[in-house]
Amino acid sequence: MYDLLLTVGICLVGYWFYYVFLLGFKKGNIVMTFNERFIHHEDHIQAVKRRLKDDGRHFEYLGDRKFIVDGKPYLFMERTVPGDFGPLQQTILKGQRKAF
User: Which UniProt keywords apply (predicted)?
Assistant: First the structure.
């Protein structure tokens, strides 16, 4: 009985760790997934700007992967995640505590 509870507990903690830390779905982060793959950094930045504009957010790109979105500082990060039909490019604007 205790083995089953321990196994379920470990699975829940593992899922939480995967969801929050590895996929970036943490409170204060802005997560975007694009179906297209961006080879050039500038094209990716332009896509992020379009998405933020479409979402009605006020933003400013400071350069060097730094954004100000709705008055808060964010750092641009990208990663590849598995998708249904192949890898997808995921963008995370990670909230920063200190202004740039």
Answer: Membrane, Transmembrane, Transmembrane helix
**Res 19: pLDDT:** 54
Q: Alpha-carbon distance 12 to 25, whole Å?
A: 16
Q: Are 30 and 69 in contact (CB under 8 A)?
A: yes
**Token pair of 81 as six digits:** 């995640």
Residue type, 31: V
- pTM of this prediction? 0.71
Residues 6+ apart with CB under 8 A from 22: none
Cβ burial of 82 (10 Å; 0-12, 13-18, 19+) is exposed
* 55 within 8 A of 80, measured Cβ to Cβ: no
Residue 84: left if φ>0, alpha if ψ -120 to 50, beta else—which one? alpha
For the segment 63-91, the average pLDDT, to the nearest whole number, is 89
